[in-house]
Amino acid sequence: MLASTSRNYLKRVSRKAALWSPQPECTVTFSRCQSTQQVAATSAPRPSSSTIRNKPWSFVPDQSFQGTARGSAIARYQYRSTGFANSKLTSEALRLCREMKKEGVKPDIIIYNNLLACLAEDCQVLEAWAVFEDMRFMGIAPDRNTFHHLIHASRRLHSTAMWDILGKMEAQNITPNEQTFHLMIQRHIVSDKRNLEFVLQCLYELGNRGLVPDLTITQEVIGLAAELGFPRLALDLAENFEATSVRRLSPETWMRCLASSAEALYAEGVQRCWEIVVGDLNITPDEGLCLDVLHTAGRHGLSDIATDVIRVLRILGADWQEHHFAPLVEALCNAGKLKDAIGTLDLMRSSNIFPTAITAQPIYNFLKQDIDKVDGAWEVLDKLRNEGKTIDRTAINAIIRAAISLSDLQRAVGAYKAFPDYKCVPDIDTFNSLLSGCIIASHRELGDRLLLELKELGIKPDATTYERIIVLCLTQTTYEDAFFYLEEMKAQKFVPPRSVYDAIIRTCIAAGDSRYTLALDELKQCGYTVSNSLQTFIDSGGRESRPRS
């Protein structure tokens, strides 16, 4: 079956070939197939005018093709030296030069530059200059890359070496380009002895020559200025580059400017960088950087940025803590937004974050400026209460402290009596502040009443409470209760501070009470040293005036 099919197929092909041929005398015969995969075809000689070709195409070898001819000796050495330069194989490059010398092959500028590239990577300055001199003796003029390798080789030398090479370039009528200054700048950025002044000098020279600094160069200089604590300079360089270039700095560069500005408490830099990083680039800083920004915002009253940082912290998934809100309260107070600052205390407590006296310290600093601000604070509290906000007791404590700092004990006691009006309960800080006011006014009776109310509220006295009640007792002519409270303080496992013993010793010596020796012994037993002023007071028999605590 297969044999007959092949035979019929060959017959049809033969008939078609005869029709295609313009010469009737040209015949083509085919032998019988020995198998289905082998076909032997024979054709009779045909005239040159026939269109039937005896092979598909004619191929004339091209002996000038680069793959068929062997390259020149210098080309082979150029190829090998380039590989050694890319691999930084200085020893192999030197062996190649020795091999060229043996074969009598004259090196060219490519060979010399590749050798210089290897020597520059190893900082072999003397050898690099020797190669440079050998080039001159060989009559080969150096090019810009030659001097670039010399600059790279001299990166560990003094900066004057860079300017000397630059002078030699100009003597050869070779104009420096951006890469030239990039190598000079890079030397003072990555080395241990970073020199910002030299880098700025190079940038200035770039501008004078009409050259535009590369993006990489600019980012490295900005990063160096930011890292060395010059945020204003870094920010000016960044804004100047973006104002004169179509390219934009990387987000990392702006983050470094923001971090440097926040670390230096540079308010203007923090404002500008925060708008770019968070607003334009939509980048979320980490929690540590957010804290630095919060401190700067708190110091300079940047309440909008401080509020935005709190928002970013929530986006980060960070748990709000007291140290996050304390700078916010400070920023609001420095911005004159007392109502928002007091309202922030309520926000903290609603978020299960408990404000402390330190949190409300900015409110106290704001109110203690004059008595009118203390009176105005009550209007703010009333507005918040009418708006349905909860008044935090730390805000009232701040009012009490401000009144006491202004020596207005009456207003302080009035603020204490107003706690029930705002559905607040006083705490230990409230009583400690009031006791300090009693000490200033030497009001022992009020102090005893406050101590009684403290116990009625079930508030446990702390070490500060005992310290102030002891000092209050010492302000009186009869100070026997001071020793009683001292023993009670020690019974509660509180270690009396040195200021307590100092006050007792001075009072006893001034009154001619020999019990000062007992207090002096206890002071030493607690590990305290006798200060020079106290020793002088003891030696003088109490004739020197004692400053009140």
Task: Tell me what the structure shows.
The protein has 549 residues and is mainly alpha-helical. Helix content is 65%, strand content 1%. It has helices at residues 2-20, 73-87, 90-103, 109-121, 125-137, 144-153, 159-171, 178-190, 196-208, 215-227, 231-244, 251-263, 267-280, 287-300, 303-316, 322-334, 338-350, 361-367, 371-386, 393-405, 409-417, 428-441, 444-456, 463-474, 480-491, 498-510, 516-525, 532-539, and strands at 28-30, 41-43. A two-stranded antiparallel ribbon has the order 1-2. Helix 22 packs antiparallel against helix 23. The longest helix has 19 residues, at 2-20. The chain is elongated. The model is unreliable at 1-7 and 16-49 (pLDDT under 50).
Considering the chains and any ligands shown, give keywords for the structure.
single chain; about 550 residues; mainly alpha; two-stranded antiparallel sheet; 2 strands; about 65% helix
Quick gist of this model?
The chain is mainly α. Helix content is 65%, strand content 1%.
How does the SSE layout of this entry go?
Layout: H1 2-20, E1 28-30, E2 41-43, H2 73-87, H3 90-103, H4 109-121, H5 125-137, H6 144-153, H7 159-171, H8 178-190, H9 196-208, H10 215-227, H11 231-244, H12 251-263, H13 267-280, H14 287-300, H15 303-316, H16 322-334, H17 338-350, H18 361-367, H19 371-386, H20 393-405, H21 409-417, H22 428-441, H23 444-456, H24 463-474, H25 480-491, H26 498-510, H27 516-525, H28 532-539
Antiparallel strand pairs: 1-2
Helix pairs in contact: 2-3, 2-4, 3-4, 4-5, 4-6, 5-6, 6-7, 6-8, 8-9, 8-10, 10-11, 10-12, 11-12, 12-13, 12-14, 14-15, 14-16, 15-16, 16-17, 16-18, 17-19, 18-20, 20-21, 20-22, 21-22, 22-23, 22-24, 24-25, 24-26, 26-27
